[in-house]
Amino acid sequence: MSESEQGLFELPRKYLELQVEARALAESVRDIAARADESDGIDVDVRKRLQATGLAGVTVPSRFGGRFEEVDSLAVTVIRERLAAECGHLDSLFAMQGIGSYGLSVGGTPAMQEYWLPRVANLDAIAALGLTEPDVGSDLKALTTSIEEVDGELVVNGHKSFITNGGDADFYSILGREGEGYSLVLIPADTPGVTTERPHQIIAPHVLSDVILKDVRVPLDHRIGQQGKGFSLVLATLATFRVSVAGAAVGLAEAALKEAVRHANGREQFGVSLSRLGSVPEHLAMCWTDIEMARSLTYRAAAASARDARANLHLSSMAKVAATEVAGRVVDRAVQVMGRYGITRGSNIERLYREARPMRIYEGSTEVILDSLAKQLVKDGTL
Q1: Which residues form the Acyl-CoA dehydrogenase/oxidase C-terminal domain (predicted)?
Q2: pTM of the model
């Protein structure tokens, strides 16, 4: 086998170096991870530790203070894999800097980009993306938030729901209906008419809020991209960042397996190690196999997305489904292996169990993604 063939399925050096950075950061928040993962507001210490590393710069193009010339899906993915293994709060804070600002990176006016994106890169400004509404989830074309141009300004009215970083964000990229189309508008959090409330919390506590927009007025240059073309920016965001959810799921699953192996090796039942008893070895081996399968697809999809995100959205979608479903299965098996210790409140595995479940819903539920993939497969007729 040639030297180039030996490296065919290995990450290039720059990504391995990012993994080392991300692992060090993740380990640095281990002492506060449990506290942060129960918070409904951004943890100050987690933010400071992420800020000190400069890793948030990976979510912004280099011309605005970021790490790489363009946002690199594989870079984001390998970082999230390491962060999610230790702290869901840290993983979300990192990822949302990109998800909340990507539309601005590719479609904003120069003035808005130059003002906001360097602050996003160094974590001086927290970004958020406002898509869903109380009665609108996957069917975004049913949204009711309105955008009108009045007297040289954009007037926005609407109610966004379950918005990550809501209440703590410095700006929101809001999708709304404008005329016959849908536009994306940047709204600073301190704009008159913007209020937030937190009526919901999920099983793995998260920085979430509803964002209410009442006669909110912003200058015309706060429209991101062309009028009525907001969906293309949202799709570009999903194409770039969806695969990174798969990375986070792989990291979480690996962390759960390590918990199960540690427990099984350290516990003796019926005169033998639990790791050699009954179906436990099979559970552990199957978890390991599932994780490696998911990781392989995730890295392939992320590398393809880094080359051309829109053209490879199908691979990113497959990876997101596969890895999040694997994470669910692995964590469930880990709980089963650990028995009563797996269902103990306040344990690491309990926290991982709760973190894993929402992954199969946010940024495209498994069922919605599979339906979209099936339509593409049937329409194109080729693999």
Answers
A1: 228-377
A2: 0.94
